[in-house]
Structure formats: structure tokens, C-alpha cells
TrEMBL record:
Key word Nucleus present: no
SMART domains per UniProt: HTH_ICLR
Source organism per UniProt: Shinella sumterensis
Domain IclR-ED, first and last residues per copy: 131-315
Protein name per Swiss-Prot or TrEMBL: IclR family transcriptional regulator
Basic and acidic residues biased stretches: 25-40
Residues in HTH iclR-type domain copies: 68-130
Region annotation Disordered: where it falls in the sequence: 23-45
């Protein structure tokens, strides 16, 4: 794979990069008005809204005789663990899940018997076991998009020497599903399965920029829009303007909006119908890069890779699309 495409394409990207760089320092102060992107792509609208309607569909499913409440409660126990709660006792699990202590006790007993939970040493706290990885690795081993994208992302990683990632949407977040790390020092470690908000990440904004305005706006409105750093853009109007710029340029750049010292550029992957499937990004530290360097050097390579993956994935449908009841 060549480093950059044709001269004309590189020149166009550099002009887009210059516009992007010039806007970084102004975006928070100016608070631009929302974009008025055409929303005629029905298939892209369906793909975007299917993610948002998932929660409503899940709520409706609870009333179905096919819904297994005990299974749902057990899964909620497994998903309660995380970096801020690596080990919990029964009372802490009840607080984290909203389930009563009796239900927690039965769920924990079952999950421990099945090997998904284990006691944390001699304490009354429980931790996830390595067996719990089976569910996540099962997805990674069978996800067609991951399989098709990996060779291209690996090549991008070799070309740039920087960390290159594939992220898929889930609700209002982007989830890391493939990651090729840099051999250079990286101050930030992001594991596979990590979820980050769409509104303040390069991959998330790239994904949202491929949606019609109404769908993108719905994602932003549903997001909590926390200011993770002093540079995080949280205003809905400003975010919509940034999405319009990303839609025009073909990529999105963020600087220190979620991690201090981090620069990231993202581009969307779409299928033959123009439906966004996922996004790829390159993340680099300020210690080695400046925004103008990222835009002139990394952005063109990222966009070319996103186009190649989109071509390879043109027959795929967005993951997690909810089927309509007949």
C-alpha cells in the first residue's frame, strides 16, 4: 500500500487539514451554529437510529414472555465490574446493579459455580475470572468487519509507526474492537473492549459525521456530554458544526478532548449503501506530534485506509441493527 494517494488527493486533504487546524483554537469561543447537512440518506438514517432505539426495544422486550429475567440479571452482575469496581461484595453489587441482595446472592453463586466469578483472595469480594473473556473473544473471532479490516489497519500501523484502531458503535459510545499499538512510548493504554463517548472522540465524530443531521443530533442529545478536560467541546451546536466539518473533510481531529496530551484523527467506514459501520483512528501523543503534522501526514493515510476498508466491507450491514417486527 502506498503512503499517500494521488497528488490531487493529497493536496485536497492538506487544504482540508489547514481549515481544520485553523478552527481548533476558535471552536470553543465561537460556538458555531448547527450545520444543515442533507438528511436524505434513508439507509444511513436507519443505521444511526437503530443504535439509539436499542434501549427502547430492550425495554419493550422485558414485557415479552420470551424474556428471561434471571439471565438478564445475571448478565447485569457481570457487566457491573470495571476499572472503578474491579472487586465487589454482595452489597456493593446490589448497589451497582440495582438488584436486591437475595437476587445478587443467587446470581453470584451461579456465576461462581460456572467459573465466571471468583472470590478475591480470602475476602468477601468477587472478581471476574479469565473465563469471562470467552464472551468478548467470541465476538472478535467471528466479527466479519474485524476480519476484513485487520490487514488494512495493520498496514497503516506499519506505515505510520503509531497506534491504529478500529471502533464500532454501541449506544452513544464507540468500542475498541481491534488495536495495533505503536512500538514507541504511549502514555495512554486503551484495551480492547474499552468504550469511549462518540461526541468527544475522533472515531466517534467521524462515525456521526456519516449520519444524516437528525440521527447525529439524536446521538448528541442523548450523550451526557461530560467535559473530560478543559478542551472538551460539549455544546450541541458546536458539536454539530464540527460534524459538518468532518463530513466535508472526510476525517475528524481532536486535541486533548478526552485525554490530556493526546491527539487523534478518525475516519468513518461505510458500506455500499453509505451506512456507517465503524471508524478507524490514529492516536498520538503531543510529545511526538503537533496537530498540523497529524493533519498533513497521518490524515491522508488514514482516509485512504478507511476507503480501502469500506471497499472490502461494502456488502456488510451495520452491527446490531434491530430487525423490524413483522
Amino acid at each position: 500500500m502506498k503512503r499517500v494517494g494521488q497528488v490531487e488527493h493529497a493536496q485536497w486533504l492538506y487544504r482540508a487539514a489547514s481549515r481544520e487546524l485553523g478552527s481548533i483554537q476558535r471552536e470553543r469561543a465561537n460556538r458555531p451554529s448547527p450545520s444543515h447537512r442533507d438528511s436524505g440518506e434513508g439507509s444511513a438514517m436507519t443505521a444511526g437510529l437503530s443504535n439509539l432505539t436499542r434501549l427502547a426495544t430492550m425495554t419493550e422486550a422485558e414485557d415479552s414472555p420470551l424474556y428471561v429475567t434471571a439471565l438478564a440479571k445475571g448478565l447485569s452482575v457481570l457487566t457491573a465490574f470495571g476499572p472503578s469496581r474491579p472487586a465487589m461484595n454482595l452489597l456493593e453489587l446490589a448497589d451497582a446493579t440495582g438488584l436486591n441482595k437475595s437476587t445478587i446472592q443467587r446470581s453470584v453463586f451461579t456465576l461462581e459455580a460456572l467459573g465466571y466469578l471468583a472470590r478475591d483472595g480470602g475476602s468477601k469480594r468477587y472478581r471476574l475470572t479469565v473465563k469471562s473473556l470467552e464472551m468478548g473473544t467470541g465476538y472478535l473471532q467471528t466479527a466479519e468487519l474485524v476480519e476484513r479490516a485487520n490487514p488494512f489497519i495493520q498496514q497503516l500501523n506499519r506505515q505510520t509507526g503509531e497506534s491504529c484502531n478500529l471502533l464500532e458503535p454501541w449506544e452513544t459510545d464507540m468500542v475498541y474492537v481491534a488495536r495495533f499499538t505503536s512500538h514507541k512510548e504511549m502514555p495512554i493504554h486503551v484495551p480492547i473492549g474499552q468504550r469511549l463517548p462518540m461526541y468527544c472522540t475522533a472515531a466517534g465524530r467521524a462515525y456521526l459525521s456519516a449520519l444524516p443531521k437528525e440521527a447525529a443530533s439524536a446521538y448528541i442529545e442523548r450523550s451526557k456530554r461530560t467535559a473530560f478536560t478543559a478542551h472538551t467541546v460539549t455544546d450541541p451546536d458546536a458539536l454539530m458544526a464540527l460534524l459538518q466539518r468532518a463530513h466535508t473533510d472526510g476525517f475528524s481531529l481532536i486535541t486533548e478532548e478526552i485525554y490530556v496530551g493526546d491527539i487523534a484523527v478518525g475516519a468513518c467506514i461505510v458500506n455500499a449503501d453509505g451506512q456507517p459501520l465503524a471508524a478507524i483512528n490514529i492516536s498520538v501523543p503531543f510529545s511526538r506530534w503537533r496537530p498540523e503534522q497529524v493533519l498533513s501526514d497521518l490524515a491522508p493515510q488514514l482516509v485512504n485506509t478507511a476507503r480501502a476498508i469500506s471497499s472490502a466491507a461494502k456488502g456488510l450491514k451495520p452491527a446490531g441493527t434491530i430487525k423490524q417486527q413483522t
